[in-house]
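=== RUN LOG ===
request id: a7f3
mode: sequence -> structure
chains: 1
length: 242
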Amino acid sequence: STTGFNGEKPLQKFNTGGGGMGGMVIRMGGPGGRVTTTPGQKLSPEEQQKVDRAMVRAARVDLSRLMLGWFAMTHPQVPAEYSYAGEAESPDGKAYVIDAMDADGFAARLFIDERTHLPLMVTYRAPQPRIVTAGGPGGAAGGGPQMGTTGGARPAAPPTPPTEEERRKMREEADRQLQELQKQPPAMADYTLYFEDWQDGDGIKFPRKIRRAMAGTTSEEWTVTKVKVNPTIDPKKFAVEG
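=== RESULT ===
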């Protein structure tokens, strides 16, 4: 499915379905603050609006980091200001360093190869993801195969939804964990997006390899096999759910 945003709406609704045993999830950090949900919980219009804003802002920020490496500019709704930060040098050569910042906290640094004038990488700092989970009831239904008295293994019984009392206990446990986490500052990490193997595509240069690393360890890697400039795209891809 397509993820992202269309105007001020995320393409996908925030999923409160949870697991079969009724786990609770609290997402901390990032724009929009925390969101706490339990399975089947219906968000109020105000809560849904808050979640939508947070999802759209997060998507725009992440897209802007990629756009810096692709086009040396951010998304129009992340109106960054640019300043020359100096020159960086490595065994592979020298790079111009450009800082990009906006009033809402977006900050990234773009490195441009002095010889080719092509982007090399984008660096930024961001909190490490922190997720608090409070699982649903355990017991035999959540375990592995059960042994019958007549021999052989039989499949586990299907999970049952949590009761209101179990939901209350899950929320209390998640709130307790959340209070503990809020006493600690979020752990920040250094992220780097690398843009490599630039090739011509429909008259423009585009990186065919893109990597994202956190604290020096690659966490994502993409290989671009085909580039088309201004292709016709089915509008249904940008339809908002619901």
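=== NOTES ===
Helices lie at 45-71, 164-182.
The chain has one domain: 5-138+148-238.
=== END ===
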